[in-house]
Design brief:
308 residues, alpha/beta, three-stranded mixed sheet, 13 strands
Length: 308
């Protein structure tokens, strides 16, 4: 009877195949696959230790705001709320730094005092919306954003209005922006190189005036101001001392100013001793000289070139 034998230390063929497969499986297990998330984390320009700190702070922040929401929703008594506020302060959630961005015209010290004079500086007790409303009352402020940067910083981002003119009305001079909003009162001598607009309601017509002057870019550098007359039309004031009276209506006023700019380019009207150009009549212009004894000059305007 034929028998079979297995040498010591040897394995059957089937066993060897199984061993090879197991070895291949082990080799596969040894090769660690790196996920896209791990690759992303390794590509960040921060160390794992700092990343862990950020992660921990984020967890604290989520828990912190979640507690505030629960307290407000459940109507927990004020005493319990104050106890939580005290706990938050001890834990480091208390305003210690105020970072102000974009504030140039406003006194920053007033903002600091407004915040740090509060009875409670813990983050849960800081009324973000109230701070925002208090700051936006200032005429210079167009918009403001107040945010918490845990654990101890308030960030205040301010968008200030830009002055574009000085408005003279009833003997008072005020800086105004492009929307006509009064920023602050100034002295007459404090012109700041800005054009002067005169008359009741003139501040609300700045956009209209800007559009009008853009029709005659050659004249614009010569303009130092404008007078809003009778809440219906403009008198334009030039550096050389002349006044140009324009007719009512945006379209007609624009056409007349452009016509005047063409005439000044051809004949040089400014700086020749004339104190007023009255062009309210689209067919005729009236000129007034500096001399009191000089008669008023009346001339017609040609339709093509607009020469006097």
């Amino acid at each position: 009877m034929a028998g079979s034998s297995i040498k010591r230390g040897s394995k059957p063929k089937q066993a060897r195949k199984t061993t090879r497969k197991a070895g291949k499986a082990n080799n596969k297990r040894k090769v660690r696959q790196i996920s896209w998330f791990d690759k992303f984390i390794r590509s960040l320009p921060i160390t794992e230790a700092n990343l862990q700190k950020i992660f921990t702070a984020s967890i604290f922040a989520v828990v912190f705001f979640a507690i505030i929401i629960v307290i407000n929703a459940m109507g927990i008594p004020k005493q319990a709320y104050e106890q939580y506020s005290a706990w938050a302060s001890k834990a480091g959630f208390e305003v210690k730094t105020v970072e102000i961005l974009g504030m140039k015209q406003i006194d920053e010290l007033k903002v600091y005092n407004m915040i740090f004079e509060s009875d409670d500086l813990s983050m849960p007790m800081i009324d973000i919306e109230k701070i925002r409303q208090d700051i936006i009352k200032n005429g210079w402020v167009e918009d403001v954003r107040v945010t918490r940067r845990l654990p101890d910083t308030l960030v205040i981002e301010v968008v200030e209005r830009q002055p574009v003119a000085i408005w003279q009305n009833q003997g008072k001079y005020s800086l105004v922006d492009s929307a006509g909003i009064v920023l602050e009162d100034v002295k007459q001598s404090n012109s700041l190189g800005l054009p002067l607009i005169v008359g009741e309601g003139a501040n609300q017509k700045i956009e209209n005036l800007t559009t009008l002057l853009e029709e005659a870019p050659a004249l614009k550098p010569q303009v130092i101001g404008a007078n809003w007359v009778g809440n219906r039309r403009w008198d334009i004031l030039f550096k050389t001392g002349e006044t140009l009276s324009l007719p009512e209506g945006d379209k007609l006023a624009s056409e007349t100013l452009l016509n005047f700019a063409r005439m000044d380019g051809v004949t040089r009207l400014l700086g020749r001793g004339i104190i007023r150009f009255d062009m309210r009549d689209p067919k005729r212009a009236y000129l007034r000289l500096k001399s009191k004894d000089a008669p008023e000059i009346k001339a017609s305007i040609a339709d093509n070139e607009g020469s006097l």
